[in-house]
# Entry
Amino acid sequence: MMRTHMPLYITATVSGIARGAYLVCIGWNALVLSDDVAVVGWVFIVHHLTIMLTGPLVGTIIDRYRRRYLAALGHTVIPLAMISLAAPYAVNLEPTLLHMFVVVIIVNVSRLLFFGSFDSLTRGVVAPEKIPKVLAVRSSCHLFATALGTVFIGFAMHESPLNVGYVLVALFSVPILVSVLFIPEKPRTTERNPGLSGYIEDLKAGFVIVRHDQRLLIITLVAAVALPLGQLSNALLSSFIRDDYGGGSDIFGSVDAAWAVGGMTGTFILGFVLSRYRLVGWEYYFAALAGLATALFSFMAHPMTLMFFHALMGGMVWCARILIDGRILQICSNETVGRTKINIEVMVSLSAVIMCFSPTLIKFDATGSYFLLWGMLVMISAMMLCLKSKLPRESGSI
# Structure
């Protein structure tokens, strides 16, 4: 069984390195090319808009074709897109911002294809009762590797031309192509509907799967409520540190890094606990604790307490994500897991956009007020959904 899971862990690790390198490379080079921090913010906005607009289409493809080959296809397209950004430097030119945003869109669609297929492969080869534990180990590998990728690419790009970063990100996709092909794929038990009409039928069916299953509906709501807290922090943390706390980039960097440390620590501890206990329903508690930590974070006034509570936020959000993802993979069939998982990610992205645009919609004097507002809303919503999940299920759609 361990040998069956090992390709999952190896793939999670090498994809984490590639993801960390990509995020730093695109973020830094977008700032260098534009000399405008707002452009970096638009990279984040385009990321979520891409998920919202293409997610259902990609999820339907995942449920209709071989997942191993789709995952490999995703990380075949990504290096080609990154090399296209490096190519203009060969003739003493630079890529345009339009070119960069087109690549961002292509990479995001390809990552959707990869991670959706990767989750579906995990669902097929892991026994349902072991899914949360495997996801915890997989996430620990991925988070640790992401941190390594960000550090490595940062040092590599420091004294190198901008095109070196693009080439390195492209090269990091090569081991992913190898490792993903060693993941066993569970055959489907039903034949897919052929042709364009069959694709449209499957696409329509994907929109009603969550609505017709109360368990999936509630888990979708708690995911949409709690998981975007990381994006809220990405959008507001720099302003909170500078404007509310009066700190500089050194404190911002330390507090920001604490999220990843908390996530890695939380997933490691969760994997250990899941080897002994099932933790049924704990996704709601972790979501509520994430909201509480976010609310308390707004009151902190010392670098150490800021780092502690930001790490706690990261740990609770990642623990909630692992258990939520585990529940989704346990509930869904092998034939519908691709559409369902990505459609839920679409709802999470929509919620993230609303959270991050809240400063435009609601004006507070202090940035910390937004952490307090959303933290309290997340905590209350998670507890209400927890109570709802314990009520007797109704038959039919809800």
